[in-house]
Amino acid sequence: MNGEEIPAAEFSSADPNTRSASMSGSNRILRLLQTASVLLVLAGCGSASKKYVGRWEEANSGEVLELFSDGRASVTQSAVPIAGSWALLSDGRVKVELNFLFVPIITTGRISNGKLLLTHEGETMEYRRQKR
Fold first, then answer.
1. Is pLDDT above 90 for 124?
2. What CA dihedral angle connects 47, 52, 53 and 58, to 10 degrees?
3. How many CB atoms lie within 10 A of CB 126?
4. In sequence order, which residues have a C-beta less than 8 Å from that of residue 40 and are 6 or more positions away?
5. Which of 1, 40, 63, 100 has its CB surrounded by the most CB atoms within 10 Å?
6. Contacts of 60 by beta carbon, 8 Å cutoff, 6+ apart
7. Per-domain residue ranges for the chain?
8. How far apart are CA 36 and CA 28, in angstroms?
9. Cβ-based neighbour number of residue 67 at 10 Å
10. Cα 62 versus chain centre, distance
11. String of DSSP letters for 86-125
């Protein structure tokens, strides 16, 4: 080095094989990250949550609870729909959160003997799956 400047093109990588090898390594890492992301999303949509998706009718009141595959929930009683959301908890139970007149109503429960049992403030409601 005799004080001359090295052109930027030469400075970035003297060996084109090294440059393409590092780019292919970066592409490989990017592909692995994309694949891992897709697998995580698919794991969240597992068969455990699919068993909750559908229309459920409460035995005593005739209230209809609908759980959608995208996480939305809807309850209809006396033709008045109430919107909300639902999620599968890590212990396998379901959490349903509805918003009635700006007041959140949160219930949790699980399926037992083919019935959806949801508990709210110590009271358990029993829902049966409706056929479409």
1. yes
2. 170
3. 16
4. none
5. 63
6. 125, 126
7. 8-44, 47-129
8. 12
9. 22
10. 29
11. EEE-TTS-EEEEEEETTEEEEEEEEEETTEEEEEETTEEE
Report the DSSP pairing between strands 54-58 and 72-77. Answer: unpaired
- As given in the structure block, the two tokens for residue 1 are 């080095």
Q: What is the pLDDT of residues 19-45, one digit of tens each?
A: 444 446 666 665 655 554 443 433 444
Q: Which residues pair with 120 in a beta bridge?
A: 123
- Token pair listed for 70: 């995208």
pLDDT of residue 26: 64
CATH class as words, domain 47-129: mainly beta
Q: Return the number of other C-beta atoms located less than 10 Å from residue 65's C-beta.
A: 25
Q: How many whole angstroms separate alpha carbon 58 and alpha carbon 54?
A: 13
Tokens for 39, please give them: 């697998």
Q: Please give the Cα distance from 111 to 102 (Å, whole number).
A: 28
What span, in angstroms and rounded, lies between the C-alpha atoms of 125 and 78? Answer: 17
Neighbours of 82 (CB within 10 A): 16
